[in-house]
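Researcher: Next sequence.
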Amino acid sequence: MFKIYWKHFKVIIKHKWYVFKECFKHGLYWQGIIHDLSKFSITEFSESAKYFQGNKSPITASKEKNGYSYAWLNHKAKNKHHWDYWVDFVEGLPVAVNMPDKYIKEMACDMIGASKAYKNGQPLEYFYKNSYRWIMKKEDKLKLETYLKEWSKK
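Model: Next structure:
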C-alpha cells in the first residue's frame, strides 16, 4: 500500500516540477510555486493514490469506475488554472466567465507539464482532441491555443 502512495507522490512532484519550470519561463513565478498544492490534500491524494496507474490521470480512472471523482471536484474548485473553475450556472445552464490571462498561461503550463510527467503525447494534440467540449469564452480558448502553439515550437 505504501508503495502506491510513494509512486503517486513521485508523479505529483514530477508534474509540479515540469509545470514549475514552464511557469518560470513565462514569468508566472508564484503560480509555479503554488501550482496544484491541493493534490496533497487528503481528499485528492487518497483517491488519486487509490486509482493510480502511473501513465494517466487517476481522476480519469475514478470517473470511469464511479462516474465522478471527489478528487476532481476538489481540485477544480481550488485551482484557477482549470476552465471548470470559471463556469457558473444561471437557471441551470452553464455560463463561461472570462479567465484572467495569468490562469490561461498557467493552464498551458499545466498541459505541457502533464504531457511530460505522464509521457502521453503533445499538449496541442490534447487541446485539439478535448477543447470542443470545454465551456470557455471563445477568446480564452483562442489564447490558450496560441500559447500552446507558440510554446510547443520552443
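Model: The longest helix spans residues 2-25. The first strand starts at residue 87 and ends at 90.
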